[in-house]
Design brief:
Elements (H helix, E strand, L loop, with lengths): L1 E5 H23 L7 E6 L9 H6 L3 E6 L3 E6 L3 E7 L4 E7 L3 E6 L4 E4 L12 E5 L27
Antiparallel strand pairs: 1-9, 2-3, 2-7, 4-5, 5-6, 7-8
Length: about 160
């Protein structure tokens, strides 16, 4: 039996967990210093809750800014709700974490981008693991390969 480790899905879950933790901290302590967020999300995601006029105006994706004025920030394991001001008109939004396409804090040049949507299989992000217990075949073993070690220093600024 062969199963796969879906590294892409695991990374997306970890990145969404990071967003959740950041928002929980902002709820508890407010936005520190110059921090602010640009959050782009899929307005057609089935669990997104926004006003009809917003989904009509942004049929696909929308970027919201959390900076000077926001209210009612609530965070769950699945997403967050917040009221934002659109031209002096406060509007409540609910954004599931898996609807987020980008999360950027330009004050510290930090950003996350979700390249593929949940449920898509990215073969480059998966590794197959052979769980079969056919150990009685001597000589048919595949040679082991060493893991490739990649230095992250070349990606740092």
């Amino acid at each position: 039996m062969t199963r796969k480790i879906d590294y892409g899905k695991l990374m997306h879950a970890a990145m969404r967990g990071l967003i959740q933790r950041v928002l929980l901290d902002v709820k508890a302590n407010g936005l520190p210093g110059d921090h602010h967020f640009f959050i782009t999300f899929d307005t057609m995601h089935p669990d997104v809750e926004i006003a009809d006029w917003l989904s009509d105006r942004y049929p696909g994706d929308m970027t919201v800014v959390m900076q000077h004025w926001y209210d009612g920030l609530e965070i769950t394991d699945e997403g967050f709700s917040v009221t934002l001001n659109f031209g002096d008109s406060p509007e409540p939004l609910y954004i599931p974490f898996d609807a987020i396409r980008t999360f950027v804090d330009p004050s510290v040049e930090f950003g996350l981008r979700f390249e593929s949507q949940e449920g898509e299989d990215d073969p480059a992000a998966m590794i197959e693991i052979d769980d079969s217990e056919d150990d009685d075949s001597e000589g048919d073993e595949k040679p082991r390969q060493d893991a490739e070690i990649v230095s992250l220093d070349k990606f740092r600024k």
